[in-house]
Specification:
Blueprint: H1 18-33, E1 40-43, H2 49-52, E2 58-63, E3 81-86, E4 93-97, H3 109-121, E5 126-135, E6 144-153, H4 174-183, E7 188-194, H5 203-211, E8 216-218, H6 222-230, E9 234-244, H7 255-279
Parallel strand pairs: 1-4, 1-5, 5-9, 6-7, 7-8
Antiparallel strand pairs: 2-3, 3-4, 5-8, 6-9
Helix pairs in contact: 1-3, 3-6, 4-7
Bound molecules: 8-iodo-guanine.
8-iodo-guanine (8IG) is lined by residues 46, 132-134, 195, 197, 200-201, 217-219, 242-243, 245, 258.
Length: 280
């Protein structure tokens, strides 16, 4: 009895090599954009969308559903896009992922890190991972951008399969953090804690994150950073504190506050990001 050959591009099939799916997504990106390779990848988190518009001219926009391995949108009506953006006045190109798959969506870790693997296959050497998150440090007002210096992965999951022993020292490149501080000298820095979600933390969980050495609480980024390191990418992580973590600062979480903080900070973090990517 022979087994049928796996659908070669089905990420959910355990027999599929996720890197092969990423390679075919990268091939399609090259076809559609006419650019044989890209240089920098950018993953946009909550509150970061307006930032991307300041990077440079958008040369192509691809619905991510046109690319192998990217799942249909979780929220109906909202299709994620991948954009090819000219970096300033240079010849270099950024690959901008307008949204991400979160671990709490239950599509598996392969789906969560597929964008990062596609970026590596497309030739990118650097990935900038952005997110919106809660702050554990009371002094960080909503709208504060913070460089990620390290992470705690509390998801219990990993994007690595089999005996893949990857060193995570200096995961969030100190070279790139220094570069970011040339653009924005007063940038704060902190340890990002990835929870599984989708619920926000309890106040006790936010206190726990602080006791463990965390400064930021969120539901993304750490798994992507691990996959990016495995793929050989240099990583910059930047969080936008959009709200105090639960129990911090004495005010309950307010979704309106989260949206408002994102809008208010957009211009500032956007020009910071543009300045940074031009210097990479
Ligand atoms: I925006 O306070 C945003 N995302 N886990 N906690 C977690 N994720 C977040 C939060 C938060 N705010």
């Amino acid at each position: 009895m022979t087994h049928p050959a796996p659908e070669p591009l089905d990420l959910d099939d355990p027999r599929t090599d996720p890197k092969a799916v990423a390679a075919s997504a990268a091939e399609r990106i090259a076809e559609v954009t006419g650019a044989p390779s890209h240089d920098v990848a950018l993953v946009l988190g909550s509150g970061w969308a307006p930032a991307a518009d300041l990077l440079g001219e958008t040369l192509a926009t691809i619905p991510s559903t046109d690319l192998p391995g990217f799942p249909p949108p979780a929220v109906s009506g909202h299709v994620g896009t991948v954009r090819s953006v000219r970096i300033g006045e240079t010849e270099r190109r950024a690959l901008v992922f307008g949204s991400r798959t979160h671990f709490y969506e239950g599509r598996g870790v392969r789906a969560v890190v597929h964008g990062v693997r596609t970026a590596a296959a497309a030739g990118c050497r650097v990935v900038v991972l952005t997110n919106g998150c809660g702050g554990v440090v009371p002094e960080w007002r909503p709208g504060t951008p913070v460089l990620i210096s390290d992470h705690l992965n509390l998801t219990g999951a990993s994007p690595l399969e089999g005996a893949t022993f990857v060193d995570l020292t200096d995961l969030y490149s100190s070279r790139l953090r220094a570069l970011a501080r040339q653009v924005e000298p007063d940038l704060a820095e902190g340890v990002y804690v990835q929870f599984r979600g989708p619920q926000y933390e309890t106040p006790a969980e936010v206190r726990m994150a602080g006791i463990l050495g965390g400064h930021l609480v969120g539901m993304s980024t750490a798994l992507e950073a691990i996959a990016a390191r495995e793929a050989g990418l240099e990583i910059l992580g930047i969080s936008l504190v959009t709200n105090h973590g639960a129990g911090i600062g004495g005010v309950p979480l307010d979704h309106q506050e989260v949206l408002e903080a994102g809008r208010a900070a957009a211009g500032r973090v956007g020009s910071m990001l543009a300045g940074l990517i031009q210097r990479l």
